[in-house]
C-alpha cells in the first residue's frame, strides 16, 4: 500500500493571514502615531508577534508540501520575502484606504524581524544543513535586534504600576485625612532613592505648612416630605460631596428653594429678609449659587445664617479650601434629586394640583479645619556633566483631594498620579549613564497643589536652585489620556519654545495634535512663569472625563498619549540643553 505524502496544511497560514488583514484593515478612530524613535512599542511588538506566527505557519506548510520541491528546499527565503511583501501591502492599504490607521515603515521593520525570528527558529529546529544554520543565525540576529529595540525609552507597565500604587486605597487619596499625602511622599522618596537621584534637600524633602479644610467624619444629606413616606438620602462620593468650605455639624430644617426672582425683584428680597434662616435649609441650583455675590450685602448676610446649604450640581467636582463656612454645606448630583421634590415644592404642574407638603432636609458634615498642617515638596536632581549649574526642571504634583467620610476617597489616577508616573519615567531615563544630561535636570514633586498651588508657591519663594539659572520648566499634570492630543499652557506666552515643541511633534508624530493656550493659574507652572521662569504646562485631552471625583481610577485611563508625551518632553529637554554629550 503506497504511503501518502504529508499534508501541506496551507489553510493554517492562509487563515492567519485573513485574520491579520481583518484586524489591520478594520476602520478605527484616528489612532496616535507610534513615535519613530521607539523601534518597539507595544504596537510594534504586536506586529512582530503576528508575523512570527504567520512566518512559522508558512514555513511549516511549505516544508511539508511536495508539489514544488525547490520551494520546499528554500522555504525560509520564500517565507521571508512573502512576509515582507505582505507587510508592505498592509501598510500601503492602511495608508491609502483612510481607515483611521497609519502606514509606518517601523511596522514593516517589525514585521520583517518577527518573520526572521520565526524562520531562524524553525530552521534551527530542523537543523539539517549549513544553510539551515545560516538561516538560524539570521533568526537569532533578528531576535537580538528585536530584543535590543524592545528596551523602551519608557516603561509603560511600570508607569501603570506607579499610577495604581498612588491611587490605591491605602494612600487615602493622597490628602490630609489619615496623612495620605505623607504616605505618598514616603513611597516617592523610595522611588527617587532607587533611581539614585541626588537630593536637593535632606531626604529629598522641603517641608512647609498650610491650613486646609478636611472631612474625616460622615458626609451625607437627606430630604423627607412631611406627612408622607417620600424620602431620599445621599451619601458621600457617588451622590453628594461636601462643599470645599463646609463647616462641621448636623443641621435639620425646612427646605426653602432659592427663588431666582430674588436676584431681580426687590419685593422678594424684602420677603427673604424676614425668613428665620437659622431654621431653614437653603436649596439652590449651582448657577444660582454662583450669583449669590450679586445680592445686596444684607441679604447675603441673612442667607449665610441658614442652618445648612444644599446645592444641586450637574457633576460632583470636589476641591479644597483653607477656611470654613458657618454651617454644613453639601453639593448633590442633579440626577440623584427625585422628581417628587419638585411636586412637593411646586405642586403637580401637569395636573394643576396645588403644591403638596413641607419638605425637611438634614445635612451632616464631619469637617475639621487643619491649622498649620505640616507637609512637603520632594526635590531631586541628575547633575549635568557639562553645565551642572544650569537647570532644566520637570515638575508634577503628587497630592490629591484625600477622603470624604470614613469610606469615600478620591483616587486621583489622572490627577495627578499620571503626571508623577511620567516624571519618574523621565527621571529613570536621565539617570542612566548613557543618558546623563549635559546640564542638570531637576525633578520636583509638589505637595498641596490642590489646596491652591501652595507647594510650588513655597518653592518659588524658597528655591532650592537659583530661579535665574532655570532654563525651562515643564510641568506634567493630567497625562492619563491623549486620544485627542495635548494642550500646552503658556504656548502662546513663550512662542519660540512652543514652535520648537510643535516642530518636534510634527517631525516625530508623538501626539495626534498640540494646542497652545495662554497664561493660566491652573497648575504648578504658574508661580514659576510669574517669577520670570519660562515654563510650560502639558496635559493630554480625550478619554476619561473623570476629574476631581471618585471615578478617577487607574482602570479608566487609556494612557494613549503617555509614550508620545514622554518622547516629546524628552526631546524638548534635550534640545534645550539636556542632550547627553559623549566625553572626548
In terms of topology, how is this protein built?
Blueprint: H1 11-24, H2 42-64, H3 69-73, H4 75-96, H5 105-126, H6 130-149, H7 156-166, H8 180-194, E1 198-199, E2 205-214, E3 219-225, E4 231-235, E5 240-242, E6 249-257, H9 266-273, E7 280-285, H10 286-289, H11 297-303, E8 308-313, E9 329-333, H12 339-346, E10 359-365, E11 368-382, E12 387-397, E13 403-404, E14 408-409, H13 413-431, E15 439-446, H14 454-461, E16 470-476, E17 486-489, H15 495-508, E18 514-517, H16 525-530, E19 535-540, H17 562-578
Parallel strand pairs: 6-7, 7-8, 8-9, 12-15, 12-16, 16-19, 17-18
Antiparallel strand pairs: 1-11, 2-11, 3-4, 3-10, 5-9, 6-10, 11-15, 13-14, 17-19
Helix pairs in contact: 1-2, 2-4, 2-5, 4-5, 5-6, 7-13, 15-17
Describe this structure in words.
It contains 17 helices and 19 strands. The chain is of the alpha/beta class. Strand 13 and strand 14 form a beta hairpin. The longest helix is centred in the first third of the chain and has 23 residues. The protein starts with 10 loop residues before the first helix and ends in a 6-residue tail after the last helix.
How would you summarize what this structure contains?
By secondary structure, this protein is of the alpha/beta class. 38% of the residues lie in helices and 20% in strands.
Amino acid at each position: 500500500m503506497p504511503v501518502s505524502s504529508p499534508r501541506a496544511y496551507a489553510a493554517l497560514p492562509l487563515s492567519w493571514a485573513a485574520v491579520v488583514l481583518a484586524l489591520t484593515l478594520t476602520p478605527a478612530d484616528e489612532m496616535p502615531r507610534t513615535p519613530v524613535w521607539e523601534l518597539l512599542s507595544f504596537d510594534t511588538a504586536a506586529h512582530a508577534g503576528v508575523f512570527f506566527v504567520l512566518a512559522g505557519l508558512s514555513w511549516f506548510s511549505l516544508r511539508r508540501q511536495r508539489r514544488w520541491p525547490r520551494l520546499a528546499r528554500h522555504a525560509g527565503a520564500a517565507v521571508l520575502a512573502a512576509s515582507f511583501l505582505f507587510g508592505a501591502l498592509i501598510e500601503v492599504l492602511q495608508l491609502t484606504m483612510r481607515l483611521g490607521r497609519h502606514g509606518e515603515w517601523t511596522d514593516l521593520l517589525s514585521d520583517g524581524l518577527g518573520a526572521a525570528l520565526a524562520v531562524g527558529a524553525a530552521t534551527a529546529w530542523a537543523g539539517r544543513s549549513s544553510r539551515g544554520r545560516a538561516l538560524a543565525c539570521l533568526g537569532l540576529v533578528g531576535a537580538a535586534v528585536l530584543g535590543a529595540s524592545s528596551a523602551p525609552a519608557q516603561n509603560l507597565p511600570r508607569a501603570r504600576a506607579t499610577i495604581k500604587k498612588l491611587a490605591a486605597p491605602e494612600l487615602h487619596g493622597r490628602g490630609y485625612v489619615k496623612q495620605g499625602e505623607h504616605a505618598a511622599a514616603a513611597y516617592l522618596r523610595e522611588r527617587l532613592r532607587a533611581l539614585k537621584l541626588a537630593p536637593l534637600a535632606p531626604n529629598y524633602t522641603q517641608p512647609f505648612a498650610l491650613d486646609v479644610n478636611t472631612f474625616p467624619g460622615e458626609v451625607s444629606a437627606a430630604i423627607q416630605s412631611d406627612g408622607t413616606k417620600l424620602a431620599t438620602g445621599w451619601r458621600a462620593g457617588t451622590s453628594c460631596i461636601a462643599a470645599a468650605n463646609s463647616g462641621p455639624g448636623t443641621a435639620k430644617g425646612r427646605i426653602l428653594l432659592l427663588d431666582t426672582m430674588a436676584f431681580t425683584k426687590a419685593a422678594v428680597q424684602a420677603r427673604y429678609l424676614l425668613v428665620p434662616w437659622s431654621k431653614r435649609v437653603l436649596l439652590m441650583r449651582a448657577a444660582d449659587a454662583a450669583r449669590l455675590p450679586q445680592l445686596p450685602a444684607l441679604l447675603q448676610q441673612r442667607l449665610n445664617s441658614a442652618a445648612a446649604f444644599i446645592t444641586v450640581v450637574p457633576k460632583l467636582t470636589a476641591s479644597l479650601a483653607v477656611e470654613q463656612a458657618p454651617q454644613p454645606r453639601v453639593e448633590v448630583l442633579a440626577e440623584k434629586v427625585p422628581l417628587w421634590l419638585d411636586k412637593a415644592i411646586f405642586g403637580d404642574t401637569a395636573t394643576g394640583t396645588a403644591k403638596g407638603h413641607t419638605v425637611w432636609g438634614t445635612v451632616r458634615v464631619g469637617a475639621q479645619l487643619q491649622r498649620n498642617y505640616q507637609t512637603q515638596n520632594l526635590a531631586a536632581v541628575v547633575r549635568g556633566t557639562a553645565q551642572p549649574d544650569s537647570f532644566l526642571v520637570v515638575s508634577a504634583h503628587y497630592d490629591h483631594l484625600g477622603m470624604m467620610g470614613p469610606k469615600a476617597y478620591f483616587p486621583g489616577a489622572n490627577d495627578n498620579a499620571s503626571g508623577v508616573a511620567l516624571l519618574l519615567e523621565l527621571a529613570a531615563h536621565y539617570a542612566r549613564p548613557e543618558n546623563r544630561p549635559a546640564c542638570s535636570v531637576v525633578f520636583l514633586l509638589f505637595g498641596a497643589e490642590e489646596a491652591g498651588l501652595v507647594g510650588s508657591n513655597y518653592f518659588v519663594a524658597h528655591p532650592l536652585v537659583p530661579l535665574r539659572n532655570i532654563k525651562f520648566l515643564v510641568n506634567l499634570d493630567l497625562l492619563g489620556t491623549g486620544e485627542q492630543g495635548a494642550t500646552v499652557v503658556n504656548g502662546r506666552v513663550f512662542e519660540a519654545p512652543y514652535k520648537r515643541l510643535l516642530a518636534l511633534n510634527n517631525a516625530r508624530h508623538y501626539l495626534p495634535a498640540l494646542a497652545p493656550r495662554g497664561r493660566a493659574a491652573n497648575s504648578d507652572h504658574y508661580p514659576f512663569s510669574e517669577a520670570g521662569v519660562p515654563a510650560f504646562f502639558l496635559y493630554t485631552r480625550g478619554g476619561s472625563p473623570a476629574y476631581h471625583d471618585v471615578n478617577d481610577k487607574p482602570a479608566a485611563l487609556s494612557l494613549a498619549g503617555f509614550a508620545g508625551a514622554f518622547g516629546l518632553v524628552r526631546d524638548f529637554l534635550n534640545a534645550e540643553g539636556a542632550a547627553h554629550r559623549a566625553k572626548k
